[in-house]
Amino acid sequence: MNPEQLSELQIDALREVGSIGAGHAATALSQMLGTAVSLDVPRISLIHVTEVPNVLGGPESLVGAVHCRLLGDISGAILFIASRQDLLSLVDMLRNREPGSTKSLHPDEEALAVHAASILISAYVAAIGRMADISLLPAPASFAFDMLGAILESVTAEVSMKVDTALLILTRFQGTEQSIDAGIFYLPAPDSLEVLLGRLGII
Fold first, then answer.
1. Does 82 have pLDDT greater than 80?
2. pLDDT, tens only, 15-66
3. Largest pairwise CA distance in the chain
């Protein structure tokens, strides 16, 4: 199912799913940090998967991505994507450090970023499951630091599916001293998108 095949009502429903999921992710991050984290969602859009790299600077943009398969009533993948600098800022925020303190992603910093992103993904997936009344769980997460185009090719190959559509949620998590810009991408398998819309009562 391509984005151009969807009605405005269906697209609005999927945007609402994205907004609610991102809100739950911000709540999860607040609970991790023990302090309020506000969430700005400047863009929620449904686009063709081939357009995803262009949203974040092109297919050769170097990014860190935490991604996992979806298990349950629908299939697909979820990705949390951020620039290297935003990943370093996330580590600073999680460790309650001054902004700019973390200079590199050593294994400990990488593990911490993956842990945080996994919690955000789980909160987002749980929100989708409750909203659509479906059973949905994320598989264990994997991390990659590479060109965005290569990451997307790897993820879609890993889950052995043809993905046409991506639900893109660009987010800004604002802490007390710094902010983190990231993208959350939901890549539903074609049949799963129809199932999700059916459970939402819009098919």
1. yes
2. 777 778 777 877 887 887 777 777 776 677 778 878 888 887 888 988 999 9
3. 49
When pLDDT is averaged across residues 185-201 and rounded to a whole number, the result is: 80
Place of tokens 């994997």: 142
For the record, the structure tokens of 165 come out as 């559509």
Helices (H), 3-106: 8-33, 52-55, 84-94
pTM, 2 dp: 0.82
Query: Which amino acid does the sequence have at 164?
Result: D
Cα(85)–Cα(100) distance, integer angstroms: 9
Residue with tokens 């609970």: 31
Cα dist. 80→3, 10, 191, 194, 198 in Å?
21, 24, 23, 23, 26
Query: Distance between CA atoms of 72 and 151, rounded to whole angstroms?
Result: 23
Higher confidence at residue 146 or residue 191?
146
The torsion angles phi and psi of 155, rounded to 5 degrees, stand at -65, -45
E strands, the chain, are: 38-48, 62-72, 76-82, 136-138, 142-147, 165-174, 179-188
Q: Are strands 76-82 and 38-48 parallel, antiparallel or unpaired?
A: unpaired
**What are the tokens at 2?**
């391509």
Say if residues 28 and 75 touch (Cβ distance below 8 Å). Answer: no
